[in-house]
Design goal:
The protein is of the alpha/beta class. The protein is built from 17 helices and 6 strands. It has helices at about 5-20, 20-45, 65-75, 95-100, 115-120, 145-180, 190-205, 225-250, 255-260, 265-270, 275-300, 315-335, 345-360, 375-380, 385-395, 400-405, 410-435; strands at about 55-60, 80, 85, 85-90, 110-115, 135-140.
């Protein structure tokens, strides 16, 4: 008996069940679209606004209106992308600033010494001014990740402010040395004196640098870096759906038939167990394909870009990478199915595995390069991550030759081994459920 007709019958049945079940339709199409919308409008918004830090400033041990006014003007003029970096509130003393900070009305409190002018000019070190007043106190509201962001912004401002003060002192020193000092220097030392003045000027000259965005090769030209990021993440979302659909469907394939009362009838019919295995595999492939279509259609509409050229053989290789990743996940799901007795248990175990994996193995976000040490190792040897990275290298970065082929042997081997293990687990699970 040909296995084509019964496999098609299973596929038609499963497709009908997808479109008849709102919950299944949500996980196949709604869930990836929801993640995509979160990605576009929360994590990768159309414009990247600068973060504005609410900061209170004052001086100690005495309040100095001149200094706080000067500092407020400086900080309020600091902008990034036409957005003010600081929203400044001047307070009379440190206690009032701490009260604002504890109530959450400001993100940070900066307390400057009241002899700041003397410190900046260097006069504080030529008179009897106490040096205990030369410390800038910085208080940051403790609020998790936001604390690190605020601390980095304030530290960057203070570093820049300090370097600018040093540069200005050197510039003024060199100016007066050149204007008045040269008349007291003997002629035979004028050359050395001028070299010293130039050296003083050089010490106050900052390092010049420029920052430019470098786009992946296949996204150069009319496509923005945001489009590249979204394209990168679209492939990750395909991996997410591969994890969820592959694990849940394949791990519950046998117990679902048993719960529906169809397993015994299937085995009693001329249909071979191989048909059920092929139908399960093909069903996962089709479900992932439906999700992929939804992801790409919505993603392209939101500004993502994935170049696919049908005459480019490497672009077809990217599809092979995704198929190999799906086969690996199916094999893992079939193996899980050997240990479950109900579809609810299969779904729970699959979710416990899939949900952390999408964040800890570089499948979706963050990229594996951003992960801590042990997670980076896990991502490096994850066959699904390797498969998705192979597709990304080709579609996003335009890789060809050895770069495009590098992950292929590993992903093929991993897919074959895991799927072979899954087939054996499928056979064991089938026998076990028939005997129960």
């Amino acid at each position: 008996m040909s296995i084509v007709k019964p496999v098609l019958a299973f596929l038609i049945r499963d497709l009908k069940s997808i479109f008849r079940s709102p919950s299944t339709l949500f996980w196949v199409i709604g869930y990836p679209v929801l993640l995509l919308l979160m990605t576009v409008f929360i994590w990768v918004p159309p414009s990247q606004p600068a973060y504005t830090v609410k900061v209170a400033i004052t001086t100690y041990p005495d309040y100095s209106e001149n200094i706080t006014s000067m500092l407020a003007r400086i900080m309020e003029n600091v902008t990034i992308n036409n957005t003010n970096l600081f929203e400044v509130t001047v307070v009379k003393n440190e206690s009032a600033g701490l009260e604002l900070l504890r109530s959450g009305k400001v993100d940070a409190l900066l307390v400057f010494p009241s002899n700041l002018w003397q410190i900046l000019s260097g006069l504080a070190y030529f008179n009897n001014t106490s040096k205990i007043n030369d410390t800038v106190k910085v208080y940051v509201l403790s609020s998790g990740t936001k604390t690190q962001i605020v601390s980095s912004i304030i530290q960057g401002f203070l570093d820049k402010f300090s370097l600018e003060a040093v540069r200005k002192r050197l510039e003024i020193t060199a100016y007066y040395a050149e204007k008045y000092g040269s008349q007291y220097v003997p002629e035979e030392y004028k050359k050395q004196f001028n070299l010293w003045v130039n050296w003083m000027k050089l010490l106050g000259t900052p390092l010049n640098y420029t920052v430019k965005d470098v786009r992946p090769k296949s996204l150069l030209g009319a496509f923005s870096n945001r489009a590249a990021i979204l394209g990168w993440m679209l492939i990750g979302l395909i991996g997410v759906q591969t994890l969820f659909i592959g694990l849940i469907v394949s791990s519950s394939s046998i117990v679902e038939e048993k719960e529906n009362g169809t397993l015994t009838r299937i085995i009693a019919s001329p249909i071979k167990p191989l048909v059920l295995l092929i139908a399960t595999t093909a069903g996962v492939m089709i479900s992932v394909a439906l999700s992929t279509i939804a992801i790409i259609v919505v993603g392209l509409g939101l500004g993502a870009y994935i170049p696919f050229n049908p005459v480019n053989p490497y672009h077809w290789l990217s599809i092979l990478y995704i198929i190999l990743g799906i086969l690996f996940v199916i094999g893992l799901g079939l193996t899980i199915g050997m240990f479950v007795r109900r579809t609810s248990a299969a779904s729970t175990i699959s979710f416990i595995i899939a949900f952390p994996a999408m964040f800890t193995t570089g499948v979706w976000w963050p990229p594996k390069e951003f992960l801590p040490g042990f997670m980076k190792i896990l991502a490096t040897y994850s066959p699904l991550t390797q498969a998705l990275d192979g597709a990304r290298q080709i579609l996003v970065y335009g890789a060809t030759g050895s770069e495009a082929l590098a992950p292929l042997p590993y992903t093929i081997l991993a897919a074959i081994i895991m799927y072979a293990i899954g087939v054996q687990a499928f056979k064991i699970s089938l026998k076990k459920n028939l005997l129960q």
